[in-house]
């Protein structure tokens, strides 16, 4: 069956998995503010993936590094000056058919994540956002799956610019502990993430 995509609305709160969104009240407020808070993917009536996003706040800091959803919007002092109407790309939940950390592998590797990103870019432009910012993951697919993100190449192919990269020591240690390091990973690049920015208006 063909996967179809749409933006999350208030009616979806409590009807689709809400992991990483925070409280239902905070999510509803985010949807009211932005018009949505995620791009949802469905196989028929079955929810199979979502890409979460939030308004970009340069001062956002994750209270526990990679173990908190705010990690995706935490760029520390690296965050550039961006317009107020900038969307921050957060986590990809590909294969999420029910609440929790479980993922159905049948939905992975099918381009669903990149299709959600494409949908989000179009949605953001249609809704007159001025820019998007995203944190890219290490290139190796195991690290991408562990984090729920995309590598820099995905963003660059969609008109983002890679503004800066750095090694996240907490992520590097987590990848080592879980043996998620590819044989081709250079030691100096293990845990390397980056900041990708895309203007949406002239």
- Give helix % range: 10-25%
Quaternary status of these chains? single chain
Task: Give the rounded overall mean pLDDT.
Answer: 94
Q: Tell me about the biggest sheet?
A: 7 strands, mixed
- Per DSSP E runs of 2 or more residues, the count of β-strands stands at 7
Number of helices: 5
**Radius of gyration over C-alpha positions, nearest whole angstrom:** 16 Å
The CATH architecture designation is 3-Layer(aba) Sandwich
Folded structure, characterized:
By secondary structure, the protein is of the alpha+beta class. Helices cover 23% and strands 25% of the residues. It has a 7-stranded mixed β-sheet. The longest helix is centred in the middle third of the chain and has 15 residues. The protein is globular.
Layout of strands and helices, then pairs:
Blueprint: E1 3-7, H1 24-34, E2 38-43, E3 46-55, E4 86-94, H2 112-126, E5 131-136, H3 141-147, H4 152-156, E6 161-167, H5 169-177, E7 192-199
Parallel strand pairs: 4-5
Antiparallel strand pairs: 1-2, 2-3, 3-4, 5-7, 6-7
Main features:
7 strands; 202 residues; alpha+beta; Aminopeptidase; globular
Write a brief caption for the model.
With 202 residues, the chain is an alpha+beta fold. It is 23% helix and 25% strand.
């Amino acid at each position: 069956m063909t996967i179809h995509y749409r933006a999350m609305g208030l009616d979806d709160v409590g009807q689709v998995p809400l992991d990483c969104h925070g409280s239902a009240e905070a999510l509803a407020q985010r949807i009211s503010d932005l018009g949505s808070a995620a791009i949802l993917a469905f196989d028929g009536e079955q929810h199979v993936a979502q890409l979460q996003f939030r308004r970009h706040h340069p001062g956002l800091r994750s209270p526990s590094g990679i173990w908190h959803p705010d990690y995706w919007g935490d760029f520390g002092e690296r965050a550039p000056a961006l317009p107020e109407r900038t969307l921050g790309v957060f986590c990809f939940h590909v294969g999420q058919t029910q609440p929790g950390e479980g993922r159905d592998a049948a939905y992975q590797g099918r381009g669903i994540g990149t299709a959600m990103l494409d949908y989000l870019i179009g949605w953001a432009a249609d809704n007159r956002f001025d820019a998007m910012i995203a944190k890219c993951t290490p290139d190796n697919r195991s690290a991408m799956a562990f984090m729920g993100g995309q590598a820099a190449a995905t963003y660059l192919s969609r008109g983002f610019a890679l503004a800066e990269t750095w090694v996240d020591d907490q992520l590097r240690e987590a990848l080592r502990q879980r043996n998620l390091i590819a044989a081709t990973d250079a030691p100096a690049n293990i845990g390397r993430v980056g900041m990708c920015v895309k203007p949406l208006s002239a």
